[in-house]
């Protein structure tokens, strides 16, 4: 909707100033969003607005305040406004004895990403009506419990009357589904499964809620137990019917509803019915299906409900469960009850004699807890309830005080995206609907909610193919929207025309925009966010002149290829101050009257090394170097020798005087003595006066030289002979040795006339301004550019502390350190390689790591590669379009030389195993040194050497690094400038960035984990860090969406937020998946602009449903442990890898500081950390042994020193390998006839992995139990089918049966049994042939070919079988008994023998 002009202009101007004063994170969101229309703009952020002013030239999508400040007219600003309206509000009356809320109705409309807070009042009276419904297991094992309950009716009434004066009580019973295999379907068992018992049933409402306790007691006296076959009961069916059949049960609307669930068995849940009965059941429809007698009727056709379904329905109908269970099933319900926000669990005695006390305790505990949940919420809206009055419990409910009006803060948030899709692109029911915000004991608040997804009105009024757009587009919302194939503000530029790029090509060049930008409508749009400028992007703003290594002397900025100096500075590199302050001498004059001031420096009329920067005499310099300066002039004037003999002697500014005796040293300014190279004699002279020799000065020289007694002329012929011999040897090497020829080519006399060397000899870097941890250092090649040259280089860290690197290497040679490795692949770079989640990047990463691991495995104790990434290296000659791979290898510190030689050898061979690489390029980075190689291809003049800078927190305030060109292994170039000094100045940090706490607990229902990142400001400047997620027990793309990015703190900002999307779980997944804690890590890395990482800079995010979190996480010891009192940080990059079925290799990177050792904690995943094992290590790696096979372990490590333990690392999980399983459990035989048996077996006690198949073997044996003939084999390839029906066995013959299991590690040992069916009583199976049981024919072929069918295909033998699968020796036919109320159907038939042949027992071995 369009906003009308506001009269309060002041408010808008103030908002504009506030927007400009803040660090524009939200404003930048509007500006930076790539939107094409008004509607897309206003959906970006709640603060975004759109300008439809036709004359507006700035960016149209921005905040409303900035659009007005930029000149957009008020009436042209389009913005969508949210709304909030109370539709129903009745004040709470505390005199009423019922639960109440206020308000009762709201209407809210929010923009995507917007949130609104409002207050909700809830009142729970001191005494409220209570409805108590007892739901009891009526299987035979509960007979004594029923007897006790019959005697306790009066006691129940007494307890209820003490709690409230208004109560009702009811009773229901349940057993299980009356169907196979849960119930024995023999007619006599269907009538009376146990003596003096009722027929089987699923659920029956016996006594509806009543105030008449006498009626309750009398009806209860006539109840009898029933029975079923399997141990788990069908209580979930009963709970659901009790909840949804409100009128049949008698629940009152304004009372507290309590459901007591009493049993001693486990429970069936969703998919049990479908699996066991071959999928013939449908999912539960959550409707009431009780007949006139209160009996559940849909037990045959509907499956059991799921746990999440029960949680939702009980909450919807205000029913609070109380689980009263015996010790036998307590562990099942201990986990189950945590799913319910308000519930209770009590341990029932075997005969239920303590049920009254249990109910009294549970009711007192429940009535003090209140849960508020949002029901039927659209996917695009999220609610969160908090309170300052009441504390939250572990299950998420509030611990309240009854009789008081509680105030709660409700946050309603409109999501921007749901599973990667914008909320406005979802169906309407996902962003609009009714939310029922319901407390535990009352109806609650109804919210009519919706997300504003309206289309801008100006888009509905567009001018199609407008003349304003040259008929090539539509005029809409103040600007042209061009048709396909056209671009430009007025759609006058054809994007398919090749001639459009001609105006972007600079004269003398081929590429448009100098290869540094894109040509759009005849104009260059440069790359690099301001790095390149100019009409043709010809100016590089990183290549302006430097002074002392600083760009533009750090006194200006580079623009259009030139320095734009700050006020008060001038010169090509802003090196010249405009003032004369630096030229003032000690007397206050300019240059001591002996020169003039230019560019901030004195230029003296008579330059001398003994004049200082202001042309004053520097007497200290005179004393340091006077003798040496006068030496050559004294030598040539006095003796006619030396480097100035001849004409140059006239240039001397003083005269010498020969004397017989010189004054002593203490009597003159300088006494000098030197050796004359021409005659090897020593001469002496004196310097008098102030030491500044002028044209009329005289130096006194001793007349007599001091010469040695002998001569060495005889050495000259010997030296000549040796030189000739050396020349001859070199000539022979040149002719016959290729290696020597290459070496000689490096000599100045033999090279081809070209040179390589670094462009600069010194770089001065400020760490606070650095945007990366490396420096691209240009290297030039001059002269003849033909041919190929490679240059080896190295960089040494901390050269100002020469003993630093050697000390660390000598003291810890076996310590594992990370080695960075970079290689150039023999393949071109693509944009997909920059995106880690693309298939191309993932495939290449696996290929690189597999091949490099194969090569480096020969390095002892080397680990596998990690952190593999791909990039492009600019300014790399003709191969700059090739892919560079950067990866990290953990290896011992002593392995550096071996790694270097191995890397160089494979680079020369152009292959690492099967991975092709380009020759002439590599970088290997150790902890204090890096070595590498760069290549000059033919015709290439300059390449960049990418050198690491080893930026670390423990660095000195000013550290020195030295880059050295070592040699030219390939080519004939000579080395010119070999050394580059790099000085890194470490200024005070602009800020310290960290997480608020090391762990965060996030409900999966919130969909987005919002993790705060804080900055402590030291210097109010810009700070930047990067972040990335890392899997732990949670898996990326299954539990959450992996993410990485950067956080930029502008001046004044102290808080940012990392957002990670959480993925939803389906109801089935949430039930079937294990209940382990799901967690992942977020790490802060790569601080820039002088930023420091504080502690903690790694956070663990724990996710799960609210009940899962509260049951498994909130008691986690990490959440309550005190922070360690030590300055050591957490070890970095923990990595675990299984080394077998009972071993795990665990390694990490040392933290900053000087740890003396490490302490490792490890435990089985899912167990409490209090059960962890501890292990000490002196090196950053350890091997965990004596572990369980195929078991998930969690581990973490901390460093410790003299002050104690430091922070623990992030959690790492690892699963050990599989191991062959143990033998299967006992074999059981259900003898159907003398030739047919049903063989079943139990799962191995130690599966040691995932069982994938079983092999059953059987064959004849003699009287000594020795095999007769070959054994027949049957492969059961489904681990759940641990049952086999074997037909056509030889009558009265003993057979040997063996069963073994297989998992991923192979086959385990056999379980054996020998049995003769003729000696065993025959009977049909107590449970009829369960569908999907394999049937085999003992007289068919051998080895897996006698697998006939599954029993739910056809209940008969296949063609060729000598006996039917449903007949016996007597020839008596099998009889069938239809299920009650069903037509005869082969798939719903119970097969049985004639009654006279039914045995009493079956044989079990």
Q: Number of DSSP strands?
A: 86
Shape: elongated
Please give the largest β-sheet. 10 strands, mixed
What percentage of amino acids are in beta strands? 25-35%
Structural class: alpha+beta
| Rg value | 45 Å
Q: What share of the residues lie within helices?
A: 10-25%
Report how far apart the termini are: 80 Å
Poorly predicted ranges (pLDDT <50, ≥5 residues)? 1-27, 274-279, 1108-1125, 1323-1332, 1340-1405
Task: Provide the residue-averaged pLDDT.
Answer: 78
Number of helices: 22
Structure notes:
The chain is an alpha+beta fold and 1405 residues long. It is 15% helix and 34% strand. Helix 9 (235-244) runs parallel beside helix 12. The longest helix is centred in the middle third of the chain and has 22 residues, at 715-736. It is elongated and about 145 Å long. Residues 1-27, 274-279, 1108-1125, 1323-1332 and 1340-1405 have low confidence and may be disordered. Residues 1-27 form the signal peptide.
Describe the secondary structure blueprint for this structure.
Blueprint: H1 9-21, H2 25-32, H3 38-42, E1 48-51, E2 61-63, H4 64-69, E3 77-78, E4 83-88, E5 100-102, E6 105-110, E7 115-123, E8 130-137, H5 143-151, H6 153-163, E9 167-174, H7 187-191, E10 203-210, H8 213-221, H9 235-244, H10 246-249, E11 256-263, H11 272-276, H12 307-316, E12 319-325, H13 330-336, E13 344-347, H14 355-366, E14 369-370, E15 372-375, E16 381-386, E17 391-392, E18 398-399, E19 405-414, E20 417-418, E21 421-422, E22 432-439, E23 445-451, E24 473-476, E25 479-482, E26 486-487, E27 493-494, E28 517-520, E29 523-526, E30 532-533, E31 539-540, E32 546-547, E33 550-551, E34 556-559, E35 562-565, E36 569-570, E37 576-577, E38 595-598, E39 601-604, H15 619-639, E40 655-659, E41 670-676, E42 681-687, E43 698-702, H16 715-736, H17 738-744, E44 754-758, E45 762-766, E46 774-783, E47 789-796, H18 803-811, E48 816-828, H19 839-856, E49 866-872, E50 882-892, H20 896-908, E51 911-912, E52 915-925, E53 929-936, E54 942-948, E55 958-970, E56 974-975, E57 979-985, E58 991-995, E59 999-1003, E60 1008-1017, ...
Parallel strand pairs: 6-23, 8-9, 8-11, 11-12, 12-13, 40-43, 44-56, 45-57, 58-65, 59-66, 79-83
Antiparallel strand pairs: 1-2, 1-3, 4-6, 5-7, 7-19, 9-10, 14-18, 15-22, 16-19, 17-18, 20-21, 22-23, 24-25, 26-27, 28-29, 30-31, 32-33, 34-35, 36-37, 38-39, 41-42, 42-43, 44-46, 46-54, 47-53, 47-55, 48-50, 48-52, 49-50, 51-52, 52-53, 55-57, 58-60, 60-63, 61-62, 61-64, 64-66, 67-68, 68-71, 69-70, ...
Helix pairs in contact: 6-14, 9-12, 16-17
């Amino acid at each position: 909707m369009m906003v009308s002009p506001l009269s309060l202009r002041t408010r808008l101007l103030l908002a504009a100033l506030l927007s400009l004063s803040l660090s524009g994170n939200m404003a930048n969101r509007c500006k930076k969003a790539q939107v094409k229309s008004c509607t897309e703009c206003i959906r970006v952020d709640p603060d975004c607005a759109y300008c439809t002013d036709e004359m507006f030239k700035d960016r149209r999508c921005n905040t409303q305040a900035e659009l007005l400040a930029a000149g957009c007219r008020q009436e042209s600003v389009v913005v969508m406004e949210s709304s909030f309206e109370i539709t129903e509000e009745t004040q709470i009356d505390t005199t009423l004895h019922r639960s109440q809320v206020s308000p009762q109705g709201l209407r809210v409309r929010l923009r995507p990403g917007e949130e609104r807070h409002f207050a909700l009042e809830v009142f729970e009276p001191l005494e409220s009506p209570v409805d108590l419904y007892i739901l009891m297991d009526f299987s035979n094992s509960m007979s004594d419990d029923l007897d006790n309950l019959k005697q306790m009716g009066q006691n129940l009434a007494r307890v209820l009357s003490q709690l409230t004066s208004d109560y009702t009580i009811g009773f229901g019973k349940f057993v299980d589904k009356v169907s196979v295999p849960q119930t024995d379907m023999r007619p006599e068992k269907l009538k009376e499964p146990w003596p003096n018992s009722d027929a089987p049933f699923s659920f029956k409402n016996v006594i509806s809620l009543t105030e008449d306790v006498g009626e309750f007691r009398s009806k209860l006296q006539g109840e009898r137990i029933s029975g079923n076959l399997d141990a788990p009961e069908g209580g979930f069916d009963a709970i659901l019917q009790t909840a949804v059949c409100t009128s049949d049960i008698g629940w009152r609307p304004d009372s507290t509803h309590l459901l007591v669930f009493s049993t001693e068995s486990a429970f069936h849940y969703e998919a049990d019915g479908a699996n066991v009965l071959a999928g013939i059941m449908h999912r539960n429809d959550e409707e009431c299906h009780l007949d006139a007698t209160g009996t559940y009727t849909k037990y045959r056709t509907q499956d059991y409900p799921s746990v999440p379904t029960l949680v939702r329905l009980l909450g919807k109908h205000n029913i609070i469960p109380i689980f009263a269970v015996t010790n036998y099933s307590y562990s099942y319900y201990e986990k189950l009850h945590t799913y319910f926000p308000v519930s209770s669990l009590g341990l029932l005695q075997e005969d239920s004699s303590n049920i009254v006390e249990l109910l009294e305790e549970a009711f007192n505990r429940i009535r003090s807890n209140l849960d508020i949940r949002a029901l039927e919420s659209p996917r695009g809206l999220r609610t969160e309830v908090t309170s300052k009055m009441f504390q939250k419990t572990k299950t998420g409910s509030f611990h309240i005080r009854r009789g008081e009006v509680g105030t709660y803060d409700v946050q309603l948030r409109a999501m921007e995206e749901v599973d990667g899709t914008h909320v406005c692109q979802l169906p309407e029911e996902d962003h609009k609907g009714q939310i029922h915000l319901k407390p535990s004991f009352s109806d609650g608040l109804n919210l009519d909610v919706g997300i504003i997804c309206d289309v801008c009105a100006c888009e509905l009024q567009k001018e199609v193919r407008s003349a304003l757009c040259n008929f090539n587009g539509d005029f809409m919302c103040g600007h042209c929207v061009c048709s396909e194939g056209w671009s430009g503000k007025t759609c006058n530029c054809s994007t398919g025309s090749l001639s459009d790029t001609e105006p972007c090509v600079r004269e003398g060049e081929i590429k448009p925009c100098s290869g540094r930008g894109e040509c759009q409508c005849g104009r260059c749009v440069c790359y690099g966010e301001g790095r390149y400028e100019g009409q043709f992007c010809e100016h590089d703003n990183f290549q302006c002149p430097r002074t002392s290594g600083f760009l533009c002397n750090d006194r200006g900025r580079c623009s259009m290829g030139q320095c734009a100096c700050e006020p008060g500075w001038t010169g090509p590199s802003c090196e010249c101050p405009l003032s004369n302050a630096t030229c003032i001498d000690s007397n206050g004059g300019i240059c001591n009257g002996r020169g003039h001031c230019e560019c901030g420096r004195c230029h003296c009329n008579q330059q001398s090394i003994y004049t200082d920067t202001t042309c004053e005499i520097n007497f200290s310099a005179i004393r340091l170097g006077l003798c040496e300066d006068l030496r050559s002039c004294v030598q040539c004037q006095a003796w006619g020798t030396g480097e100035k003999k001849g004409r140059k002697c006239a240039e001397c500014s003083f005269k010498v005087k020969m004397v017989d005796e010189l004054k002593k040293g203490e009597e003159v300014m300088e006494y000098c003595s030197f050796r004359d190279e021409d005659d090897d004699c020593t001469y002496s002279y004196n310097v008098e006066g102030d030491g500044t020799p002028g044209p009329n000065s005289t130096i006194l020289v001793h007349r007599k030289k001091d010469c040695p007694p002998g001569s060495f002329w005889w050495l000259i012929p010997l030296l000549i002979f040796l030189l000739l011999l050396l020349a001859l040897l070199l000539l022979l090497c040149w002719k016959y040795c290729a290696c020597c020829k290459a070496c000689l080519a490096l000599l100045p006399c033999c090279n081809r006339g070209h040179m390589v060397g670094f462009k600069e000899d010194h770089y001065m870097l400020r760490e606070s301004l650095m945007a990366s941890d490396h420096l691209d250092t240009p290297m030039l090649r001059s002269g003849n550019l033909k041919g190929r040259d490679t240059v080896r280089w190295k960089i040494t860290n901390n050269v100002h502390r020469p003993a630093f690197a050697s000390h660390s290497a000598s003291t810890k040679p076996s310590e594992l350190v990370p080695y960075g490795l970079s290689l150039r692949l023999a393949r071109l770079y693509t944009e997909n390689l920059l995106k880690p989640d693309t298939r191309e990047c993932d495939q290449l990463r696996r290929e690189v790591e597999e091949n490099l691991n194969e090569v480096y495995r020969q390095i002892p104790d080397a680990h596998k590669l990690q952190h593999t990434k791909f990039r492009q290296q600019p300014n790399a000659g003709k191969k700059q379009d090739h892919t560079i791979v950067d990866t990290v290898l953990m290896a011992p510190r002593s392995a550096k030389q071996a790694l270097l030689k191995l890397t160089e050898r494979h680079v020369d061979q152009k292959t690492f195993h099967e991975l092709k690489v380009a020759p002439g390029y590599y970088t290997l980075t150790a902890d204090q040194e890096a070595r590498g190689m760069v290549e000059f291809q033919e015709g290439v003049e300059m390449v960049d050497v990418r050198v690491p800078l080893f930026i670390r927190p423990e660095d000195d305030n000013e550290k020195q690094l030295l880059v050295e060109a070592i040699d030219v292994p390939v080519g004939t170039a000579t080395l010119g400038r070999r050394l580059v000094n790099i000085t890194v100045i470490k200024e005070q940090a602009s800020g310290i960035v960290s997480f608020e706490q090391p762990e965060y607990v996030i409900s999966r229902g919130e969909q987005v984990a919002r993790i705060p990142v804080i900055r402590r400001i030291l210097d109010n400047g810009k700070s930047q860090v990067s972040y990335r997620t890392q899997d732990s027990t949670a898996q990326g793309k299954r539990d959450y969406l992996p993410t990485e990015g950067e956080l930029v703190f502008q001046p004044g900002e102290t808080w940012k937020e990392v957002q990670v999307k959480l993925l939803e779980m389906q109801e089935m997944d949430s039930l079937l998946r294990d209940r382990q804690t799901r967690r992942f890590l977020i790490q802060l890395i790569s601080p820039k602009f002088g930023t420091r990482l504080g502690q903690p800079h790694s956070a663990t995010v724990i996710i799960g449903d609210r009940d899962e979190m509260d049951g498994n996480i909130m008691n986690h010891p990490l959440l309550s442990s005190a922070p360690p009192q030590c300055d050591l940080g957490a070890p970095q990059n923990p990595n675990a890898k299984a080394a077998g079925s009972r071993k795990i290799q665990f390694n990490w990177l040392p933290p900053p500081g000087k740890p003396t050792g490490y302490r490792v904690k490890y435990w089985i995943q899912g167990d409490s950390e209090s059960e962890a094992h501890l292990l000490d290590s002196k090196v950053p790696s350890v091997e965990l042994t004596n572990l369980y096979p195929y078991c998930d372990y969690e581990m973490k490590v901390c460093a410790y020193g003299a002050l104690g333990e430091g922070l623990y690392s992030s959690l790492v999980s690892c699963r050990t390998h599989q191991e062959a399983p143990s033998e299967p459990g006992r074999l059981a035989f259900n003898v159907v006839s003398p030739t047919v048996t049903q063989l079943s077996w139990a799962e191995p006690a130690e599966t040691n992995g995932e069982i994938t198949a079983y092999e059953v073997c059987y064959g004849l044996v003699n009287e000594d139990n020795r095999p007769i003939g070959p054994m027949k084999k049957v492969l059961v390839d489904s681990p759940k089918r641990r049952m086999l029906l074997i037909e056509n066995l030889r009558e009265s013959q003993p057979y040997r049966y063996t069963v073994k299991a297989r998992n991923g590690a192979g086959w385990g040992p056999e379980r054996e049994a020998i049995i003769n069916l003729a000696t065993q009583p025959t009977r049909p199976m107590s449970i009829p042939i369960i569908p999907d049981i394999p049937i085999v024919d003992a007289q068919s072929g051998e080895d897996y070919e006698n697998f006939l069918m599954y029993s739910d295909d056809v209940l008969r033998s296949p063609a060729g079988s000598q006996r039917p699968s449903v007949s016996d020796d007597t020839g008596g036919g099998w009889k069938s008994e239809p299920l009650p109320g069903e037509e005869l159907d082969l798939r719903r038939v119970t097969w049985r023998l004639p009654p006279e042949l039914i045995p009493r027992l079956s044989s079990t071995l």
